[in-house]
Amino acid sequence: MKLHEKPFGIAIHGGAGTILREQMSEEKEGEYRSNLNAVIQAANKLLILGGTAIDAVELAVMMLEDCPLFNAGKGSVFTAQGGHEMDASIMDGTTLEAGAVSLIKSIKNPVQLARKVMEKSGHVFLAGEGAEKFAFEQGFEKMNDEYFYTDFRYEQLKSAQRSNAVVLDHTDLNEKKFGTVGAVALDIHGRLAAATSTGGMTNKQFGRVGDTPMIGSGTYADDRTVAVSCTGSGEYFIRANVAFQIHSMMLYGQSDIVQAASNVVQNELTKIGGDGGIIAIDRNGRIHFEFNTPGMYRASQSNGEEIYVGIYK
Ligand code: ASP
Prior knowledge:
Shape: globular
CATH class: Alpha Beta
Helix content: 25-40%
CATH topology: Glutamine Phosphoribosylpyrophosphate, subunit 1, domain 1
Bound molecules: aspartic acid
CATH superfamily: (Glycosyl)asparaginase
Number of strands: 14
Distance between the termini: 39 Å
Number of helices: 8
Strand content: 15-25%
Largest sheet: 8 strands, mixed
CATH architecture: 4-Layer Sandwich
Structural class: alpha+beta
Oligomer: single chain
């Protein structure tokens, strides 16, 4: 049987928010597009060669973490203390195993650590010092603070501190931009997986944890239904249990991926005041993007066909 007779696909996001064409330079837009494109190409290649969905989402999120344009890994925003506290999670839709980390300060790719937690710790969720201790025991390299320093993020912190605000990844205090990254995939073996990673919010107080590392809120995958990764105002995504609710509507409510995602994002999340979006892929390889913000950095490729890259509504 030819590989492409089985459906497969990958979708990624680099955050949602007030992303407007009129505020974007051609050069910046080009940078976003080419980075999203490169990530999709790499993950698609892995899937075509028979790789697993869990490997594809881990690879995609690692590449996004390494890109300073996005608020995760290298490009993480600063906390109020001028440091970094990163969160990440990953879930395997076949085994329903999951791994998550929170309040990570010195690991280059938090998604890799989340996967290690899933496979090697006997736990699902490790946070702070304990998570880092586990990382070093597993052979992860300790990165110094300079690795995570970018002028752009430091300026964001100073501007947030001048106005005494705790803000989601943004450039203007009247706007909201969420630069979290995520990936969902279906492989040719029929397996689904999802992963999400973030630096959280600029000027956040120590100890704040968003939806990104919470299984069911920011990330969920189940081979019977769908894989979902979220970005947006974490407090609301936690309360609406966004990713799990989409899965539940498909499992128990017989909704399809579009009905489930649009109901949860446009009704359940919006009615409590949350903003942001989700990416999802179902067990048949159908990909869907849903967001209630003016834009979301996103890209996908199904069955090795043409790559889609989108930014605005
Ligand atoms: N959801 C993330 C958080 O609340 C933020 C984002 O999506 O950029 O930490």
